[in-house]
Specification:
Structural class: mainly alpha
Mean pLDDT: 87
Radius of gyration: 22 Å
Number of domains: 1
CATH superfamily: MFS general substrate transporter like domains
Largest sheet: 2 strands, antiparallel
CATH topology: Growth Hormone, Chain: A
Low-confidence stretches: 1-17
Order of helices and strands: HHHHHHHHHHHEEHHHH
Number of strands: 2
Length: about 475
């Protein structure tokens, strides 16, 4: 990877029209772009993983209602994200996308903090309402960052493989965000006692970290030249009409929706899996660390395979392996032996070792199909630019982002319904014992249910035909 600017020898202030957007993108630009995903991933994953746990064990909210608390703000984003995308498309010629990124970063950070510090009240129902309202505001703020952020990736290069490099860097920081947002958050809470103090400290630490990394991207890309379209964006209705003509985009959108619903259901019960099914919350940081290291280490391999096989084939291979590995979570149970003792980790049973092996494999393939789906998104946007002269990348990114967030809303709803059906018992002040049936429902949400949605997603993706378009 080159360490020069974009392109070599051209200063960042050079007008976009004078920049060769087929040239290699400099590492400095890639780093400034990628780092924002760390904070964005923290905001996306930590509430998805811990908000249901916080609602059901600290605020006494029923599991099914906790799912609705997450769903309602996400439904709004189906409308909000495309509107933000269209708005940023219209204003980018005059102001760029930096104002959206900066405002979104700051408000998202404070919104994250509020979710875990300002939601306790006299009744579970009122707490659920307050949480829903604050999550609505925080999600709207996040839309102001996440939609223009995704749109920028399609405006940095005409070269499909360079756009894959962009997504590789984004995926590296995304993996680090998972490490922080999932691997650090829950152990930090319980390491500080698991009560109000632990949740408050976690909220401030992760909220400020999320804000800081997103601001690095917002300010760092303000003067980087972007591709200038031949025309100007039309009305929102005309832009959405153009999307209907982009069949590769619609197929990719539907496949990612189906895939992500199952993943979101699994994310929702990560905290419950380690608390109830494995009875080993202490292993979460090790699991996430292994997954992160393997995911980051595998990125050069997937970049090479996407060039050799094509993005579509590499995506299918990674998705298929992910489904096989995820199916094996169905057989997890607490460890009843000591297989090995590791320095700094302690005694590991057979089940613990298998968890870490799965973590490594999941890291390798999950980072691949997520990265490749985003890279293919930029391909469909570039196809739109070449076809009609105007990419409308903000609207395309906005709709894609809205569908992703809808998936992460439907996932908790699905999880809440399954958990309630299997008899999960909510509580206040901390976790309580659950029946074997309730734990079985949690395991299904982490294994066979995501596998089923992944298979359906691949069936939809089989109709993706960008080259023929």
């Amino acid at each position: 990877m080159t360490a020069t600017s974009i392109p070599p020898g051209i200063p960042s202030g050079t007008p976009a029209a004078e920049v060769d957007h087929n040239a290699p993108i400099g590492t400095s630009v890639l780093l400034r772009y990628g780092v924002g995903q760390l904070g964005a991933q923290v905001f996306r994953d930590t509430p998805a993983v811990l908000l249901p746990l916080f609602l059901t064990t600290m605020l006494g909210v029923q599991a099914w209602l906790a799912g609705l608390v997450v769903l309602v703000p996400k439904l709004w984003l189906i409308v909000c994200d495309p509107l933000v995308g269209a708005w940023s498309d219209r204003l980018r010629g005059k102001y760029g996308r930096a104002p959206f990124l900066v405002a979104g970063a700051v408000l998202t950070g404070f919104g994250f903090i509020a979710l875990f510090t300002l939601t306790k009240s006299s009744s579970p129902l009122l707490s659920a309402g307050i949480t829903c309202f604050l999550f609505f505001l925080a999600s709207t703020a996040f839309s102001m960052f996440s939609v223009p952020y995704l749109a920028i990736a399609a405006a940095l290069s005409h070269d499909a493989h360079e756009r894959t490099r962009i997504m590789v860097f984004r995926m590296v920081f995304s993996t680090l965000g998972v490490l922080v947002g999932v691997g650090v958050a829950q152990p930090l809470v319980y390491g500080l006692g698991g009560g109000d103090f632990g949740w408050t400290v976690m909220a401030w630490v992760l909220g400020l970290a999320s804000m800081a990394t997103m601001l690095v991207t917002a300010l760092g890309l303000a003067r980087v030249p972007m591709i200038v379209d031949a025309g100007v964006p039309g009305s929102l209705l005309s832009q959405l009409g153009a999307i209907r003509q982009n069949k590769p985009y619609l197929v990719l959108l539907a496949a990612c929706l189906m895939q992500t619903v199952g993943q979101a259901a699994g994310y929702t019960v990560i905290g419950f899996i380690y608390l109830y099914a494995l009875k080993a919350v202490w292993i979460v940081p090790v699991f996430i660390l292994v997954m992160a290291i393997c995911g980051i280490a595998a990125q050069p391999m997937w970049l090479h395979l996407s060039r050799k096989w094509g993005k579509e084939r590499a995506y299918v291979v990674a998705s298929t392996v992910w489904a096989f590995v995820t199916a094996t979570w169905y057989f997890i149970h607490p460890a009843d032996d000591v297989l090995v003792t590791l320095p700094g980790v302690g005694a590991l049973g057979t089940q613990h070792v298998l968890v870490l092996v799965r973590g490594g494999l999941i890291g390798v393939v999950n980072s691949a199909f997520v990265m490749l789906s985003l890279s293919m998104l930029t391909d469909t946007i570039d196809y739109q630019r070449r076809r009609v002269g105007v990419a409308n990348e903000g609207v395309f990114a906005g709709l894609f982002s809205a569908v992703e967030k809808l998936s992460f809303a439907l996932g908790p709803v699905l999880a809440g319904l399954v958990m309630s059906a299997f008899g999960f018992v909510s509580s206040t002040g901390g976790a309580v014992e659950q029946t074997p049936e309730a734990i079985h429902g949690i395991v299904l949400l982490y294994s066979l249910i995501p596998v089923a949605t992944q298979i359906l997603s691949l069936m939809i993706f089989s109709r993706y035909r960008l080259d023929r378009a």
